[in-house]
Amino acid sequence: MTPPPPPPPRRRMLAMPAVCPCEDISPGTLLASLATLSADVAAGCDVDRLPALRGGAGVAVRVAGLLREFIEEVRWAAAELPGGSVLGMSELHVALQKMRFLLEDCGRKGARMWVLMNAEAVASELRVVLGSVATAMDVLPAGVVAASDDARELAALLSQQAWRAAVRPDEEDSRAARSVRSMLARFRSGVTPDAEDARLVLGRVGVASWWDCSQEVSFLEAEMLERLEAGGENDNDLVLISGLMAFLLYCRVVLFDRIDYGKADEPAPAPAPRAASYLARINPEGLQCPITLELMTDPVTLATGQTYDRASIKRWVKSGCRTCPVTGEKLRSADVVPNVAVRGIVEQLLLSNGVSLHEPSSKHRCAVDKTASSFGAAAAGGARLAVAFLVSKLCRGTPEEQKKATYECRKLSKRNVFHRACLVDAGAVPWLLHLLSSPDASVQDNAVAGLLNLSKHPAGRRALVEAGGLGLIVDAVSVAAKVEAQQNAAAILFYLSSDAGYCDEISRIPEAIPTLVRLVREGAYRGRKNALVSLYGVLQRGAGGHGRAVSAGAVAALASLLPGDRDDLANDAVALLARLAEQPAGAAAVLSSSALVTRLVDFLGASASRSAKDHCAALLASLCRHGGDAVVALLGKTPGLMPSLYALIADGGAQGSKKARWLVNEIHRHYEQRQPPVAAPPAGDRVIRV
């Protein structure tokens, strides 16, 4: 069965992809569609709640209302519409579609500040649309306009209002926009803006809480990352977007003392009674990704019909796996399609609990690397001022202020490289390390998550090590109050392991490797995953870590993941065993369990991951080198090994094929040496070759 096509991507602001009705549509059908569309436009916009252009939007809504009345009058009065009416009504249909898009943009959630600063552009587009409505009304055939006296009067009034509509930004809009530009100019000079001016601007657009500010920042960040994803580093809008982001971040950090996850007076819209009853019967576990066991915020479906979170299944396929994780069926294609139904259920479930589901962030990960620049002096100045305020609260604030500051650091550094650099330069790392000892579990959790984000930056890793934070991070893996904090601490060690010097320092901490091994053995999925990749990095670049890992029981902990219900963990375990077996002590620990060797051979034949097969072949080759002929003999007697090696020679990667070929040759050499020599024929029977 062919999967349904994916839905179109989110429409960009001020993009109006109107669709013209087909030429052979009947006038009656087109008129009915116009009636529905005009009613939607007239009733779908709450003008008083718009951040800007309330006057212009009000004109557009009145015009749509008049058009609705005109169409209803024509439908009632006209017995039959002339065929020539299709052209004019089609123009009306296109204009109404564009009007609906514009009004939706004016009221789009999180886009209040963006609409305010682009009010002139929106007003210009709205004037063009109203002109199109007036033109379409003027070219309608007399048989439509004169369907009745009321229709004639409505048509004249509608055309007159559409032509004469004065759509321009309100004076208060212009004043607020000038105030924002003035504050951005202060940011460029590194000067703190007046708090009262900032509050007045926020009040004008209806941003009244920390949550409102966060919604605005999230929208602007998504706009920026989408442009960067599309290669628009030179997009002129990026300077304004990044400047507005800095302004709103500064306001969120400085002006709002309390973090609220939604307005108390404006709760998230509750689902309808039938939907609420439906949601109550849903098992949340059914909405978890089968790979990560986390809620699927961006669900996609494979050709096998199974649904996964997009980021998880992409990692699965990228690792070389070519089977469906649930069914084991071989994938004919790695293409995925969004599961709109599941995403809708997840969104309703979250909204019913007061949580908003934003656009998936995973699709923007490759664009995050492009945020090392601030895209303008205003954005740089605003970010530095906000960061300086945060660091002052980290070091001298009350417990509540420190709690908010750690959370702000976590959010600020999540998807912006420049913000990470600002936090490091302002000295946030030592204070976040200090707050790891806080008795408040939330402060611990946010401090660890912030340090994790900063450890993705080279300067952040250097600051963490220079502040003596390695031991504190190792301790957090074991004793942090929340499991998530322990898992994030293990991930920090992974980023630190990218530097050989840091690997040596981690290896010298007596508790470091045993702590990671314990997390592999006892942790939840994500903790195990982070511990595995951290151990691999430490052993790959650090010296002296192999012996500590073997002594800590790493081989037994890794063996417990084979086979297992998590193929990605099993693949990582084999890669780490291959790394351990490069040293004699590691190879001896693996060989001490004949059952483990058998499981490795079975894994080589059963794994669907090419990279995992390559690691497994390298592991078996290391065992043969360190174990000698006894191990070669053992492998030669193990059923199923030779076919797997021949298959790897044919289909494996370059290193995997090389290791498999070496193993086959060693096994053949061993058995050829054990065969008794063939007796030479008698002298008289020798053949003399010329």
TrEMBL record:
Organism name: Oryza meridionalis
Gene Ontology molecular function: any one: ubiquitin protein ligase activity
Domain of life: Eukaryota
Keyword Plastid included in the entry's annotation: no
Keyword Transferase attached: yes
Residue span, U-box domain: 282-356
InterPro entries noted in UniProt: ARM-like, ARM-type_fold, Armadillo, RING-Ubox_PUB, Ubox_domain, Znf_RING/FYVE/PHD
ARM repeats: 427-469, 553-595
A Pfam family assignment: U-box
Keywords recorded for this protein, A-Z: Repeat, Transferase, Ubl conjugation pathway
Protein name in the entry: RING-type E3 ubiquitin transferase
Major enzyme class: transferase
One annotated GO biological process: regulation of seed germination
Catalytic reactions of this protein: S-ubiquitinyl-[E2 ubiquitin-conjugating enzyme]-L-cysteine + [acceptor protein]-L-lysine = [E2 ubiquitin-conjugating enzyme]-L-cysteine + N(6)-ubiquitinyl-[acceptor protein]-L-lysine
Listed Gene3D superfamilies: Leucine-rich Repeat Variant, Zinc/RING finger domain, C3HC4 (zinc finger)
Pathway membership: Protein modification; protein ubiquitination
EC numbers on record: 2.3.2.27
